[in-house]
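[job 4471] stage=fold_predict status=RUNNING
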Amino acid sequence: MELYKNILIGVHPTAGVPEHVVQKGCDLAELHGANLYLASMVEEKGYGPFARYEEDVLKKAEQEATETLHTVKQKAESHGHGKLDAQLIVEHGAPTQTLLQKVVPDYQIDLVLLPQTSKNKMDRTLMGSFSEAVVRSASCDILIVDSKE
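[job 4471] inference complete, writing structure tokens
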């Protein structure tokens, strides 16, 4: 069965992603014989004021995202029993737009897995939900993985 060819797991640049989300992504990649991608977006806008005081702040943010991705990659490869070679993607920009307008088309992603974000209604009202924004605007299939194992 080869429904999906390119599966992406969205990874928070500092917090990573829950292990059961990685497991589900690996299982789906194996089931479909798909390529697996791990992607993290570094939002430059949030670092603007700090960049004046420390030139390397964006470089450090990118390095932290890359380290987080490498940690997740090790988990993915252990779940894939050596059969998976997850590719890492670090991009700069607003997360929703960068994912949907750059990463998905550039890598021909046909399934994106995202961990469920906060269920707190106030948090979603004040800050919005990345997962919800992606679902509303995506041109590919999106799987929101429950935050519970």
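[job 4471] summary: The chain has six helices and five strands.
[job 4471] exit 0
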